[in-house]
């Protein structure tokens, strides 16, 4: 077993060395460097991003631990960990990031039927279809199960009417996985989980301008959208189980934001660049230095926690509500990190449009992170879940 | 290697949990304190630790030990922490053994440690706050060395059979070069110990060395190159103190969460109040993260990885922060009763403070990490 892992490590190292383009080993500098895939992805200015994704997808390594028959690499937990370590070793970027990979895929693997898995998973793995998530509604935020978007049974199809909000990248996505109400008489027990094409008649999106000046989220409207019955995932009125399972994966993904990016440490490098070091080699602002140092303790400890969490998940020993802890801790940490980046950057970091500031990337990212502890269930919701499900504290 | 205990380690954890929980729960500490026990721990219990094989966890099999690692030592320390058990395990079976491993002195000292006869103490600190500086002098004298100076916060130093002393044979106080580590037996003439009871009822000595003569063979490792052995000792001590603190923090959290489920006010159990639920859930999160940091440091130490010292500092700082929170929240959420000597939660707070300070506190290690990173 150990020999097998060791030879896998060596082969992987060689293969990555030969196949990861140099530009894909540079630190990620913004959303443009993240490959989301999809029908509308434009690789004209970045052909190596496509090349890299295709090479990885051919081996199933965009989703290394998914089964081979669905476009995955069929790797065990131990092999997947080695692949990730070897990618990190050369600062290789993630070849494809998408809600299909991090959220829908795991849910389809667990709840989808064979036809759904064969239809959707390989397209996710190859970056052909970009998915968005239709969960929150204007009157169903933290109280998600209060959603009202309706799906009426019309024999061979559902007729979907209603509105979603905070739909990430709905204007760029090809398909949506969506929670709809199929029974108004009960709350959680009347929700179903359906999939449909965003090009279906009756779907429209409207980007929401955020405090960052960007519009990563949309309002999404459904006006008599026909959804074929075969696009129901799991049983009718059992969509809440799928939704919760998927939320666990979403929280896992968002928690990863607390880990910062690969290659260098932009917080520390940035602070040194702006503030400088004193004659003892210490950041010249001693109070900020202390804040960064204490933040780094938690950040590095959280890296260990993420490793432990993934190992426990793969080993089937993680508490089912543990993703709530990861989401809570990771997002709060990430907000702290960006407060420190702003404090380190001073007035340079305040520039909003200049080329010097990469069009205000520090300020805009800082503002963007404020949503981390709101989206995917607020920090307060996560604390409720930890208190009730892990600590088993009494209900009021 | 996954970041959780394997089957053997889990079995050891269960054994340690049962044994320490039954033979030395918090009432054991209370008894020692109330009887003004002058050793600061139970010698019978130390013998039992030896019979269980615990004292030989870090000693190689060919030297008569179990040949296990820091993960296994940590498993025992976590239970020591959870039960607030006074024990020389951390100084003797972890830090001292780690320093003596591979040295010639192990033949002299390991048999006594394995049998539960010998207790070791660590004479490192010279000031109230732990620093990397060693100023105490060791001059060459005849065949050996003459030690002059003072040490403090030497846990078990008043009764220890063996005292590991870091002193300077060259260079000046903050140099790494020029430190030498000595194994000094308790009867060395010119060494005096002033036993001081600490806030947590443990006893630490202030040691004075007035021309203490030791042979050349008292040197552990190489003369002037003691920084390497000292690093090994401190890494083991810090990882160990982190594991013990994890147990203290977890024990305090258990008491507190249990109390939230029992105590009624306004006709409800107070654990149903969201203001307290959120604080408890935040505490749980901090403790989980600390737990992962400790296991990571122990695994890296056991694999001899270069990044182990960084991970050890992360673990010591993180457990310091998380456990301090745990005992503070513990007393606050217990309310008035948490301030009474009758309730155990106060004992947890006192022990946490002592362990947080040992081998450098959270600020010390955060600073160290910053220096290692170059800012």
From TrEMBL, chain A:
This is Alkylation response protein AidB-like acyl-CoA dehydrogenase. Residues 49-128 form the Acyl-CoA dehydrogenase/oxidase N-terminal domain. It comes from Stakelama pacifica. GO terms for cellular component: plasma membrane. Residues 132-225 form the Acyl-CoA oxidase/dehydrogenase middle domain. One of its GO terms (molecular function) is flavin adenine dinucleotide binding. Residues 237-391 form the Acyl-CoA dehydrogenase/oxidase C-terminal domain. Belongs to the acyl-CoA dehydrogenase family. Keywords: FAD, Flavoprotein, Oxidoreductase. InterPro entries: Acyl-CoA_Oxase/DH_mid-dom (IPR006091), Acyl-CoA_Oxase/DH_mid-dom_sf (IPR046373), AcylCo_DH-like_C (IPR036250), AcylCo_DH/oxidase_C (IPR009075), AcylCoA_DH/ox_N (IPR013786), AcylCoA_DH/ox_N_sf (IPR037069), AcylCoA_DH/oxidase_NM_dom_sf (IPR009100), Mycobact_Acyl-CoA_DH (IPR052161). Its cofactor is FAD.
Automatic annotation (TrEMBL), chain B:
Coiled coil: none annotated. Residues 225-371 form the Acyl-CoA dehydrogenase/oxidase C-terminal domain. Keywords: FAD, Flavoprotein, Oxidoreductase. InterPro entries: Acyl-CoA_Oxase/DH_mid-dom, Acyl-CoA_Oxase/DH_mid-dom_sf, AcylCo_DH-like_C, AcylCo_DH/oxidase_C, AcylCoA_DH/ox_N, AcylCoA_DH/ox_N_sf, AcylCoA_DH/oxidase_NM_dom_sf. This is Alkylation response protein AidB-like acyl-CoA dehydrogenase. Residues 6-117 form the Acyl-CoA dehydrogenase/oxidase N-terminal domain. One of its GO terms (molecular function) is acyl-CoA dehydrogenase activity. Its cofactor is FAD. Residues 131-209 form the Acyl-CoA oxidase/dehydrogenase middle domain. The lineage of its organism: Bacteria, Pseudomonadati, Pseudomonadota, Alphaproteobacteria, Sphingomonadales. It comes from Stakelama pacifica. It holds the Pfam family Acyl-CoA_dh_N.
